[in-house]
Amino acid sequence: MQLSLNNTFTSELPADKILENSRRQVHNAVFSYVNPKKTSAPKVIHTSKEMANQLGISLKETKSDFFKNVFTGNKIYPNTTPFAMCYGGHQFGNWAGQLGDGRAINLFEIEHQNKNWKVQLKGAGETPYSRTADGLAVLRSSIREYLCAEAMYHLGVPTTRSLSLSLSGDNVLRDILYNGNPAYEKGAIVSRISPSFLRFGNFEIFAARNDVKNLKILTDYTIKHHFAHLGKPSKEVYLKFFQEVSKQTLEMIIHWQRVGFVHGVMNTDNMSILGLTIDYGPYGWLEGFDFGWTPNTTDRQNKRYRYGNQPNMGLWNLFQLANALYPLIEEIPPLENVLADYKTDFEKQSLAMMKSKLGFFTENKNDLGIIQNLEDTLQLVETDMTIFFRNLSNFSDQNTGLKVIEDAFYNFENISDEVKKLWNSWLKIYAKRLQEEKLSHQQRKEKMNAVNPKYVLRNYMAQLAIDAADKGNYDLIDEFYILLKKPYEEQPENEKWFAKRPEWARHKVGCSMLSCSS
Ligand code: AMP
Ligand code: MG
Fold it and tell me: Which of 392, 364, 362, 365 is nearest to 377 (CA)?
């Protein structure tokens, strides 16, 4: 396996001078050199062929021992120097100081077909940033990250990618519910890929330490490699950089809202500077449409990162990034303008996104009202978001009525007449509004189906794959991986995955309740 390497990060950015892998505060450095931990019995259980292909790695090579050893951290690729990044972050609204790659180790950068990809292992052992934890990851959370990142990519949502999922062969102790019942679980390692793993927190840590010199070095590097079209760094370019990060962050969150993805831990250390979905932890997919839903049990009290609050939290995080970049820009009003634009752009883009989900392609000043009315109606009784929007494309006129969306209701038999009346009245408005559209029913249906996925990684589906994998059967991982490559297509043989969450999964740990323990 011959990789084409170009390690810009380690060659252009300041490294921690201390080489010892001890837990500490790291100053004046963007990263620390650290080697992954050897594992007792590494075994690759899945690889993303699409991602391997984009890295110039052949299918045959992914099956080699060399691949296995490199992508589980058991062999260091020749002439490379693995490292962990230093970053800080605001967690649940509070400044948390230095965090860093506590269980992520960056291996190298691959250049292929004019693209530069950073390669990182998650769960490959401790680093100077591991704080009180072990630097490892368990199989269940690794399966969730591995599958979801690839699923998001195929949904058209900006995201980091997955290359491989492996067992380490070691056991890892975890207290899933934080209730004093730790148990051993299988350890695992995901190799993940991204043009950059930089987070808002990488910039915040320097600002918090008044280290403007390194803040500038890091920002200049980021602009040079990821925002080169903005030109040579200057005050104006720093501002434009912030503007672009703001736009890309918003774009990502609008996609999340469209497909019903709830990240679960939108702390600033989990916000990618490129607006990519990163760090798949206690995330979840909406089953019943509910603005108030969060999958993360740690956030159950305040529901800070609930579905309906994600756009606001994106803005809150951008505000923190604005503070961090302020020393380079030194003017408040233009930064405030960018944040104000986020709000107006959100209104516009959210409306456009919802219109596309409903099949409205012409202008109508009543659309916002129709959408708000729908969002209220959707929350009257438990209504499956994915099934509702997908089946709505079969609605053509009032005669097709409630029947078309019946499957989306979790308890259709017991829906009150009152609720049915409200649904019928919304459908009446919808039918009338559709009459103004110029496309044929078939054309509209095709367009709606291209934005309303048929298949998403429902929370219980990931759990089924986890339960089977825990017993040594990896077939479901592969089945979901293949299914989710074509989320917008009809796949008659896979109709069983276009179904509401089964009742057994309603309150099951891993399906509706997820913690940060991973
Ligand atoms: P998260 O909320 O999962 O993004 O994690 C916040 C911070 O904790 C990050 O800096 C992680 O690297 C670190 N972290 C999470 N789990 C572990 C672990 N098992 N070992 C070491 N560090 C961890
Ligand atoms: Mg994280």
Answer: 392
Range of the domain at 388: 360-449
| Within a domain: 19 | yes
Expressed in angstroms and rounded, the spacing between residue 383 Cα and the centre of ligand 2 is 31
Q: At what angle do helices 475-483 and 139-155 cross, to 10 degrees?
A: 20
Nearest CA to ligand 1 atom 14: 102
Which one of 197, 213, 241 terminates a domain?
Answer: 197
**Residue list, ligand 1 pocket, CB within 6 Å:** 99-103, 129-130, 133-136, 265, 269-270, 279, 281, 516
| The pLDDT value given to residue 307 | 98
Whole-model pTM over 0.90: yes
Reported as a single tens digit per residue, the pLDDT across 151-205 is 999 999 999 999 999 999 999 999 988 888 999 999 999 999 999 999 999 999 9
Whole-number Å distance, alpha carbon 145 to ligand 2 midpoint, is 12
Kindly report the number of other CB atoms within 10 A of residue 363's CB atom.
8
Task: Specify the residue with its C-alpha closest to ligand 1, atom 18.
Answer: 135
Same domain, 370 and 501: no
Q: Give the pLDDT confidence score for residue 507 in this predicted structure.
A: 87
Structure tokens at 481: 């991986």
Question: Residue ranges of the chain with pLDDT lower than 50?
Answer: none
Query: Could you give the number of structural domains in the chain?
Result: 3
- Ligand 1, residues 32, 86, 94, 99: which to mutate, most atoms within 8 A of Cβ? 99
Handedness of CA 486, 491, 493, 497 (dihedral sign): positive
Residues 20 and 55 in one domain: yes
pLDDT at 326: 98
Residues with CB under 5 A from ligand 2 (ion): 270, 279
Query: Reduced to 3 states, what is the DSSP secondary structure of residue 349?
Result: helix
Per the CB < 8 A criterion, the answer to whether 233 and 329 are in contact is no
Asked if 473 and 440 sit in the same domain, the reply is: no
Same domain, 104 and 190: yes
Atom 4, ligand 1: residue with shortest CA distance:
270
395 shares its domain with 492: no
pLDDT at 199: 98
Same domain, 443 and 466: no
Q: Are residues 59 and 180 in the same domain?
A: yes
Residue 447 confidence (pLDDT): 98
The SS3 call for residue 441 is helix
pLDDT number for residue 117: 98
Q: Confirm whether 397 is a catalytic residue.
A: no
* Ramachandran angles phi, psi of 61, nearest 5°: -65, -35
CA of 257 to the centre of ligand 2 (A): 21
Q: Which two tokens stand for residue 322?
A: 């604005």
508 CB neighbour count, 10 Å cutoff: 15
Instruction: Name the catalytic one among 16, 101, 220, 269.
Output: 269
Residues 44 and 149 in one domain: yes
Chosen domain end from 140, 172, 197 = 197
Length of the chain as a residue count: 518
Does residue 314 contact residue 410 with C-beta atoms inside 8 Å?
no
The per-residue pLDDT for 449 is 98
Q: Report pLDDT for 237.
A: 98
